[in-house]
Amino acid sequence: MKNAVLFGDSLTYGYGVYKKDALACLLEQRFPELNIINSGVDGDTTREALLRIERDVLSFNPYITTILFGTNDCAPGEWSHRTVEEFQGNMEMIIDMIRLKSPKCHIILITPPPVDETVFMPWTTNKRLAPYCDAVRDLAETKNCLLADFNKHISEISQGDMETFLQEDGCHLTEKSYIYLSRFIGDIVENIINK
Predict the structure, then answer these.
(1) Quick one: 152 exposed, middle or buried, by C-beta within 10 A (0-12, 13-18, 19+)?
(2) What is the DSSP-derived secondary structure letter of residue 172?
């Protein structure tokens, strides 16, 4: 059975929803032929990701790897903020390390979803998030990775009203959002499998 690793932060992990409603379980249901590995860690930025990539990604010799970071990287807190330049450099290293260890791995880069600025909680704003999404789009092109532009996708579906797509903190995904994300990612995975 081939391994598909979901590498990311709390959005990948499934913070705030039941395990059955998170991305990993939804993809498992759609692709029983794949071993779906949830390597999402709450609060991670790309800096922490590099520290655990050997254990949480490379050791599985993945056939597919999804990479979703950026929301924590762009947050203004001293403990988490990474500049766009560091974020882009870290993402490049992540891609290069996967390619070196697993040259045939299909890498899917995911843009982080918008935040709801109308609630008290988000640690970031869409204006701060935008250049990180742009960096992911640029990397998909320059590093020849597959792109899942979830930021654009969910913005179009929600028509700017993110209330039912995000939890009360204005940042983490609801069950409804995970359904959309799993379908969006799943269609890309299906194309890979059916090649």
Answers:
(1) middle
(2) S
Say whether pTM exceeds 0.70.
yes
Instruction: Match 């998909």 to its residue by tokens.
Output: 140
Residue whose tokens read 């929301």: 71
The candidate with the shortest Cα–Cα distance to 34, out of 70, 64, 78, is 64
Question: Into which CATH architecture does domain 2-193 fall?
Answer: 3-Layer(aba) Sandwich (3.40)
Element (H, E) at 78: none
Number of Cβ within 10 Å of residue 172's Cβ equals 23
**Sign of the CA dihedral with 11 first, then 17, 20, and 21 last:** negative
CA distance 83 to 53: 20
CA-CA distance, 24 to 43, in Å (whole number)?
18
- pLDDT by residue for the chain (195 residues), tens only, comes to 999 999 999 999 999 999 999 999 999 999 999 999 999 999 999 999 999 999 999 999 999 999 999 999 998 877 789 999 999 999 999 999 999 999 999 999 999 999 988 876 667 889 999 999 999 999 999 999 999 999 999 999 999 888 899 999 999 999 999 999 999 999 999 999 998
